[in-house]
Amino acid sequence: GRLSYYDKINQFWIIADSNMNETDTLSCANNIRTDYHDIRLLNNGGYILQGYDSLWTDMSEIVEGGHSFALIRDILVIQEFDNDHNLILEWRADNHLDILNYSDYLDLTSFQITWMHGNSIEVDYDNNLLLSNRTNNEIIKIDRATGDILWIMGGPLNEFTFIDDPLNGFNKQHDVRRIENGNITLFDNG
What we know:
Elements: E1 3-7, E2 12-16, E3 22-26, E4 33-41, E5 47-57, E6 70-81, E7 87-92, H1 93-96, E8 112-114, E9 118-123, E10 129-133, E11 138-142, E12 149-154, E13 174-178, E14 184-187
Parallel strand pairs: 6-8
Antiparallel strand pairs: 1-2, 2-3, 4-5, 5-6, 6-7, 9-10, 10-11, 11-12, 13-14
């Protein structure tokens, strides 16, 4: 079996065999900062990583009171690689989501806006991806072939009703997983 751990100083994953011999290092492509929160080592030898990008943006043209030279940090990027380290899927939050929808969660007038905090990636029963975005209290289901968003649970774009829940959903969650009976579990930090 393969074991993995993250080198926080150099910002890459180290893969080791069952004897703890280092066999490979894994990192995001396209100048994306590799994150340590989750990695998926796939049975076919491929892997899925998450990382972050940042963009300088004129927020004064987008939101009243926005900075003309604002840094949008932590734009979540999911990258899937085959067993030869070829990038086969790149999903960028800014290509599929509008930061304006997150104004209840983020100060869009700040000089630095930290948009997302992904902390788990799950390959779902239908081979698509479940992604936990802690900053905005949401789970995003992503079509693994096209990158399209299939649904969003929680957060400002919630498509679900939470029944008999006095807190109306989860808050700052971690570790979203699909279990064998079809339920989705998470650790609700709220």
